[in-house]
Every structure is written in C-alpha cells, then in structure tokens.
Design goal:
The complex is a heterodimer of chains A (about 325) and B (about 240).
Chain A: E1 3-4, E2 15-19, E3 30-36, E4 42-49, H1 55-65, E5 74-77, E6 99-106, E7 110-112, H2 113-132, H3 151-174, E8 181-183, H4 184-205, H5 216-244, H6 272-288, H7 291-318
Parallel strand pairs in A: 2-4, 3-6
Antiparallel strand pairs in A: 1-2, 3-4, 5-6, 7-8
Chain B: H1 3-55, H2 61-75, H3 77-85, H4 92-110, H5 120-144, H6 150-185, H7 202-233
Classes of the chains: A alpha/beta (about 325), B mainly alpha (about 240).
Chain lengths: ~325, ~240
C-alpha cells in the first residue's frame, strides 16, 4: 500500500511522494514524468513509484494533481504518436528505464457506455411514441390524438417499443462492457442517428395516409413471427456471450453453440447477434412495407457487417482452432 | 553462382519490372486523362467566349454548351475511382463530395430546370468552374510530366481564394432561383399515400442542400488553405487529431 503525502510538501511542478509498504524490502523505485503531448511542458513528476503499479494507479495519482482530468479522460502514451497505454499494464513491464516519460492527452469529457445506451434507446423509444399517439403539430390538427385504423400500425408500435425495451434491459442486466467510456461527441452523434431515424420511420408508419402491406394479413403475420424469432435469437446470443465471460478472466474462449437452438447459428457465423438484428429489422420492414425502414435496415446492416468483420478477424487471429466454416455475419456468404 | 541465388535475383528483377511497367502504365493513363480534361475544359471556355462575343448576351449560352459540360463533368467521376484504387493519393471522400456536388448541380439543377438556365448566376459558376478546372488539370498534367512551371503552381493554389467563394455564390443563387419552379412543378417529388409509405419533397430537399453549404464550404475552403500553406510555403501543419 502506498501513502500520498499532502501536496503542501511540494514546490514548483507537483510532486507526489509514495512511501513503500513496510513488508517490501529494497525495491528500485520508478520515477514517472508526465508531459503534455502537444505543448511538451511537464505537467507532473511522480517520485518513488512502485514498479508494480499499473497505468490505472498512475492515472489516479495524476488525477489528484489535476482534478479536472478524471482517469477516464486521460490518454497516456510512451511516445506522442504511440499506442495508448492500457489501464491494466504494469509499470515495470513497460519498455522504460527507471524514469518513465509519458505523454498525456485529454480525451475530452467522457460518458459511461451505460449512460450512452440509455440515452440512445430511451430517445428512440419515446420519439416513436410521439408519432404513434399523434401528438399535436406532428400531423395535421384534425388527426391530433387519433389512432390508426390499421392493426399493423399497432403491431409495429408494440414491436418497436419492445425492441428498445429489450435493449434497455440488456444494457442493465446482460451486457458487460470492456471499455469503460465514450467521448461526449460520440453520444451526440449516436443519439442523432437513433432518434432521427426513429422519428423518420415513425412519421410514415403512423401517418394518417399510411398504406398497409400489399399482401395484407398474411404478410403482416409472417413478418411478425420472424420478428419475434429474431428478437429471441438476438437475446439468446447476448446471454450466451455474457456467460462466456463469467468463468475466469485469463482463459479466453470463443463462443460456441449451446443447447438453445437459437445459438446454433454459431455454427455458421461469428456474430449471430448481428445476424438476428438484421433479421429483426428486415421483418419489421416487410411487416410495415415502409421504405424508410428498409433504408434504416440497410444502414444498420452495413455498420454491423463492418463490426462483424472486425470481430471475426480478431477471433481468427486469437484462436488457432477457430472453425473455418464460420463466416462473419451471413452464413456461407461473408 | 548457385542456381537458387540466380532464381532469386531473376524473380526480384521480374517483380521490379512488373512494378515499373505497372507504374508506367498508370502514369501514362493519368497523363492522358489530365490532358484530355484540360483540353475539354479549354474547349468549353473557348465555346463560351465565342458565344458571348458573337451574340453579345449570355442568354442561350448554357444550352449551347450543355452537352459538352455534362460529358466532361460526369467523366470526372473517374477521379473518385483513382483515389479508391490508390493511384492518386487524395481522400476518396473529399474527391467524392466535390465531384458529386458538381454532377448534382449540372444534372439535377441546371439541366433539368430550364427556366433558370439564363440566370446570371449560372454564367458566374460556369466561368469559375472553367477557370478552376483548366488550372487544376494543367497543374496535374505538368506535374506528371515533371515540368511544372511555377506560374501554374501559383495559380492552382491562389486562384481558389477568390474563385471558390464566387463559385459558391453562383451555385447558391442558381438553386435559390430554381425554388419557385420546383415548387410549382413538383418535380422529383413523391407524395403520400403510396405503396412504399415514403414521401420526398424536392423543394425542401433543395433548401437543405443550400443550408448544407454552411458547414461544408468552410471545411473545404480551410482544407485548400492548409494545402496551400504546405505547398507554397513548406510549412508543417500539425493536424488536429480526433
């Protein structure tokens, strides 16, 4: 355990002293110098740093001198243009001498992933409802607070709302996030995307002049069925991915099919959660027969394919025995 | 001389030869392309000047050059391909945005809305585009031929300072002039109800296009200014990383 002496012992640039624990005998202590990556001025000098401390510990110490830069917004590098140092890296394992020089960059205000997801999903959910209930000024005033005569419009609202409620539940209970935070700018961009598209699709589906699908009830019922199947599939995959991380942090394994038939898609793809997500939105498109929904599905598909390809490549790199029949997102195709 | 050693060097030479022929072909194509585009825009410039001298007015000028303009401006799509394939080191997105905005202006505004073809703003952007493109393509041509006169380099990186804003003014005024005709004719628009449950109002779309100049133009202009500083004054620009 190290103890920080009060700062009034320092002079000039902030110096923080760490005392060794009494059980440790003569260990070589490190010194850490933190320099601003842009201006190259020295921001902090840490004396007598335990060589077993992690980057996370150093960030916490730096935070004490500069309380406006909480650890999540600190980016530390050994070289101004080098790789970002991870929080769990240990000081003595780094390629530095006993005096380490690190370059600091402010990543800007950060938000936790949970906060971000909440904002995105609640916004999307509520925006749709504004159109479903035909809040005044959205459509012509004669239609204010009326409801559509088509059952498919109600089904669509239920599906959309349940989809985002499911996502919210997953954010709270299922997902485990590897990176803690996201920059503020990203949340603005993501919320604009989710809320904007939700409004655009909801506008047409709940419009007084909405035209129900060409093949009527048959089309709606089939699409509704596949939608529910895909949602259940997506949930199954999220749960199985969560269970993967439960036992042991050191042993890394790739996801495998389980007894749940929905997870059998793992035989064919690396990211069946994305496959099911695309399937759900395609079903929603067919169910509502609405072009904006098709466009939203296409954008989502493109983005998820990029993520799936990345994940697939990461799996191939990490595991030598990775099944070769698996594709990234579409079975047998890519 | 071991045979394996010989094979090694022969293979290397073959690879080098392949690379050299490939890059020679690429240079030949790019040189041809840039000369052709310079020639095309020169033809446009001369045709425009002759028309104005003969007729004394700009009315009917657009109609007389419309086909040539469409051809050469559309052919510029090839430049996006160059960036995508990697034979030209520019961002695909920047080139894409610039070429697409030009093509959009030609096909979906000026050519399709006849009533605005005699506006002064059309003449303005035509003149700006012609001067800019002739300078730009001759710059690339000379660069590829390794004989770049300083004047061309100076022109390429200085003309835009005046021409770019002038071009934007011409384009914006043209779109603005087109608005009433678009509204009246309902062109390119789709209304509810329809089978696909979608609607599109070209009038509002044009308004959004005009508004989008506000964030986009400064970015492109600053990008050109930064390039100018780098090329003409050899300054090292520190790019702000995200």
């Amino acid at each position: 355990m190290s103890i920080c002496l009060p700062l009034f012992f320092s002079a000039g640039t902030e110096r923080i002293y760490l005392l060794p624990s009494t059980t440790m005998s003569r260990t070589t202590f490190f010194e850490v110098e933190i320099i601003d990556a842009k201006t190259k001025e020295q921001l902090c000098f840490l004396d007598k740093v335990d060589p077993h401390s992690t980057i996370g510990d150093i960030k916490n110490l730096f935070y004490k001198s500069y309380p406006q830069w909480y650890p999540a917004r600190q980016a530390l590098r050994l070289d101004p243009k080098g790789k970002l140092l991870k929080d769990n890296e240990i000081l003595q394992n780094l390629p530095v001498g006993t005096t380490a020089t690190m370059y600091f960059k402010d990543l800007g205000p950060q938000l936790g992933w949970t906060t971000v997801f909440f904002a995105e999903y609640i916004g999307a959910l509520l925006t749709y409802l504004v159109f479903f209930f035909r809040v005044p000024y959205v459509y012509s005033h004669t239609y204010a607070f009326t409801s559509s005569s088509h059952p498919v419009v109600t089904f669509a609202c239920v599906c959309h709302t349940l989809h985002y409620m499911k996502r919210l539940m997953e954010t709270i209970f299922v997902h485990r996030f590897s990176h803690g935070t996201m920059p503020l700018r990203a949340i603005v961009k993501n919320c604009a995307y989710y809320w904007g598209f939700s409004a655009w699709l909801a506008y047409y589906i709940n419009h007084p002049l909405y035209t129900p699908p060409s093949y009527g009830e048959l089309q709606v019922n089939y699409a509704l069925f596949t939608f529910v199947m895909c949602e259940m599939g997506n949930l199954s995959i999220h749960i199985s991915l969560r269970n993967l991380k439960v036992d042991g942090l050191r042993v890394r394994k790739f996801p495998m099919p389980t007894k749940n038939p929905f997870t059998w898609l793992f035989f064919f793809v690396s990211c069946p959660n994305y496959t099911y997500e695309v399937g759900a939105w395609m079903s929603f498109t067919v169910m509502t027969q609405c072009l904006p929904v098709a466009i939203y599905t296409l954008f989502g598909f493109i983005q998820m394919s990029i993520w799936a390809k990345g994940k697939h490549k990461a799996y191939l790199r990490e595991f030598k025995d990775y099944p070769s029949v698996r594709m990234a997102i579409i079975p047998l195709i890519f | 001389m071991a045979s394996s050693e010989e094979d090694g060097t022969v293979e290397e030479k073959e690879n080098n030869n392949k690379k050299r022929t490939k890059s020679a072909l690429i240079t030949a194509w790019l040189t041809f392309y840039n000369i052709a585009m310079t020639a095309g825009w020169l033809v446009l410039a001369i045709t425009m000047m002759r028309f104005y001298i003969q007729k004394g007015t700009h009315k009917g000028l657009y109609r007389s050059i419309a086909r040539t303009l469409k051809f050469f401006q559309t052919f510029a799509l090839v430049e996006v391909l160059h960036c995508a394939v990697g034979i030209v080191r520019t961002s695909v997105i920047v080139t894409g945005v610039q070429v697409c905005s030009r093509i959009y202006m030609v096909w979906f505004i000026t050519s399709s809305i006849r009533q605005i073809q005699n506006e002064e703003s059309v003449l303005l952007f035509l003149v700006v585009w012609t001067v800019t493109e002739i300078t730009r393509y001759s710059y690339y041509t000379f660069k590829l031929l390794h004989h770049l006169p300083y004047f061309i380099k100076w022109a390429r990186y200085n003309f835009f300072i005046i021409l770019y804003p002038l071009g934007v003014v011409g384009e914006l005024f043209t779109i603005y002039a087109a608005l009433p005709f678009v509204r009246r004719s309902g062109m390119y628009s789709m209304r509810l109800p329809n089978k696909y449950n979608v609607s599109f109002d070209y009038y509002y779309f044009l308004i959004i296009v005009m508004l989008s100049y506000i964030p986009l133009f400064p970015q492109l202009y600053l990008h050109m200014l930064r390039q100018r500083r780098r090329v003409l004054h050899g300054e090292v620009i520190v790019e702000k990383d995200d």
